[in-house]
Design goal:
Number of helices: 16
Strand content: 15-25%
Order of helices and strands: HEEHEHHEHEHEHHEHHEHHEHEEEHHH
Radius of gyration: 21 Å
Largest sheet: 10 strands, mixed
Strand order of the largest sheet: 9-8-7-6-5-4-3-10-11-12
Distance between the termini: 79 Å
Helix content: 25-40%
Structural class: alpha/beta
Shape: globular
Amino acid sequence: MFNLRHRLRLKWFLLTRSLNYGVDFTTILYQIYLNHSKIIHFRQGYPVYSLSTPAVFSPPAANFLARALYRTIQNKNLPNLMSFAVNATCNAACEHCSFFEAVDQPGRETLSLTQGMDAIAQAQELGVSVINFVGGEPLQRPDLPDLIRSVDRQRSTTVLFTNGWLLQERALALRAAGLDSIYVSLDGPDAASHDAFRKTPGLFDRALAGLKQAKSLGFSVGISTTMTPERHARGELAAMVELGKRLGVHEVLVFDALPSGRYKDREDLRNNPDWVEEMIQAAKPYNQDATYPGVVFFAYFTSHRSVGCSCGTSYFYLSPYGDVMSCDFNARSFGNITTEPLWRVWERLTTTPEFCQAKWGGCKVKSDAGWGENLPPALAAEPPNARATAEPWHEG
């Protein structure tokens, strides 16, 4: 009788308290990860806190939580996020570009539709719950909707990063394919500054037209912007957030410029955290105001306050040629999915000590260890037949 009373009391407690507990858990979860706990959109009825995470209580969110459990049980790293560069072409010439400086290999064949679909299936089998479609300029790939359509939407949410040039005319096809979210890259609050930064006249106006079209179709939409110390000094963070508010976007994602790609020689980007921290602190009033979009920072994600650097722990980048890399900004291939299974390449990446341990102090590319310039010693010491195509093929 004593145990029965306690069990009935427990059931009543769960019935009356579980809803509030679920709200508290979700709020704290996103406060830690994003530095805010503001719902920015409801997509197909599911609350969205950030474009870069699955909508709350959606099947991909359940997949994320289940994989987190199995990650603990297996005591090994599993990926929850993949960026898939679907092509090696672009109509812009951005001054900070990391792709064409380090990743692009003219004359090398990009993955076919069949190979791309297989790569997505392998990534989802490993546990990926967020798939970013990037480039190049991904909308220049004609069969992009087919790649998106191949994603099992019970497992993963899908996000497109685009410069917006072709977005207005292709948005309907993306909606039909099942794409969830779209970030449009804007690197200036007006046409003059943005088009000069990306060396593409007319890009700003086309990007805004694409954003408006995407929002009208029900996508979760955001601005992705790369902030430099110079832009920060000019007060452009506030200008970009105000632009996002005027456009009605749901999120502003801020990347602090990294010493990679065309900025690889900028040592001022490596050990100069003060201006980045100023931006993070300056965003707090926006995130406490429901009339503004959510404002999130790559530098916050990779800091000790959130998840730390996820390269090789929960994230990987897939090049247009099938090379598996630790991230978009560190062009070191650990293998190629056209010559071996993705799980085997992931195993290699996640057992290389320099990459498999989360760097809580921030992005690994900024580290003095020079991972952006040299292969890790542990990987370089392996015999060639043990790492297949993991040679630093882009050098020279």
